[in-house]
C-alpha cells in the first residue's frame, strides 16, 4: 500500500505503470524522468577552441624616420602628424611586383597582405578604402610611401585590390577614410 506522502511526491503518471511488486521500477522511472528534466537545464561543456597566433606589431613612434619629410624625383613630401578626420577621394592603383622588397617602415612587402602606400599619411595608419564603382571596401594598414605617379592617391597591395575588385582594371576611383593610428607619440 502506498502512503499519502508517496502519492504527493511521486507523480500519478508513474503510479499508473505499477503492477504487483513494481515499486522499485516506479522509483527508477521517476528518477529517470527527473534526470531528463534537469538535463535540459544544463548546457554541454564545449572544449576550448584553439586560436591561431596573431602577430601584433608594437606601436611605432610617430617621429620615426619614415614619418619625416622626404624628397622623391625632386618633390618634397611632408607626412601628416595626425590623420584624424582624414577622408579623401582619388585614384587608387595596386602594386605587387615589389614582393620581398622592404617598405618605408622596413618590413618586407607582401603582395597578398592588406597593406597600402600613401605619400603623406603617418606610418603606420589604418584606413578604409572603398571602391566607388562597386561599393566594396577593405581595411588596410598604410606601411609604405607612394604612389609617385601623377594623380594617384593610394597604392594598394594586390591582396587589398582584389578584395575591392580593383585587381582587373589596375586603377579605380576610391574613397580613403582614416580609421586609427597605429603609431604612438613618445
Strand content: 25-35%
Distance between the amino and carboxyl termini: 87 Å
Q: What characteristic shape results from the CA principal axes? A: elongated
Helix content: 10-25%
Instruction: Point out poorly predicted stretches.
Output: 13-18, 52-56
Instruction: Give the tally of β-strands.
Output: 10
Strand order of the largest sheet: 4-8-5-7-6-9
Q: What is the overall pLDDT average?
A: 80
User: How many whole angstroms does the radius of gyration measure?
Assistant: 33 Å
Individual helix count: 4
Instruction: Give the ordered list of helices and strands.
Output: HHHEEEEEEEEHEE
Largest sheet: 6 strands, mixed, barrel
Structural class: alpha/beta
Write the layout of secondary structure elements.
Layout: H1 4-9, H2 12-16, H3 23-39, E1 60-61, E2 70-72, E3 75-77, E4 87-95, E5 115-117, E6 125-131, E7 137-144, E8 154-157, H4 158-163, E9 171-181, E10 183-184
Parallel strand pairs: 1-10, 4-8, 5-7
Antiparallel strand pairs: 2-3, 4-9, 5-8, 6-7, 6-9
Based on the model shown, name its key terms:
6-stranded mixed beta barrel; 10 strands; elongated; alpha/beta; 186 residues
